[in-house]
Amino acid sequence: MDKESKTLLEKIQTHFLKFSEAGGTLSKQTFLQALGDRKDSFFADRFFQYIDRNQDGVVDMRELTQGAAVLLGGSDMDKIGFLLSLYDMDGSGEISREELRRVLTACVLESNMHFSDTHLDYLTNALFDE
Ligand SMILES: [Ca+2]
Ligand SMILES: [Ca+2]
Questions:
Q1: Is 48 in contact with 28 (CB distance < 8 Å)?
Q2: Domains along the chain?
Q3: Nearest bound ligand to CA 50?
Q4: Whole-prediction pTM value?
């Protein structure tokens, strides 16, 4: 990790510490607040799941640091792994057609675009070309 990323990582840690509860952990709600995103969106939820590695429902400083380190200083493979785990909701190691459909649906909803189910199906099929 380069010097700039290290400085940024320290800033992230300091920022999240301000929001942290007893024991230096963040619940999903406080984590989202710290991100400045109060709505419980699909992507915020997936991001929290990714950071909360041991899946105990709270993020501690170690998990936060590990997660941020991947995004700031990880290799391309690390970053692809991050994207994969955002979309791979059942943790199977693959993105199924159904998972892709849910990601696209969330994209459309959260960007206030208006797509019909037919258009979403079409898009899913176009991307999921087996
Ligand atoms: Ca955790
Ligand atoms: Ca999967």
A1: yes
A2: 1-75 (1.10.238.10), 88-130 (no CATH)
A3: 1
A4: 0.80
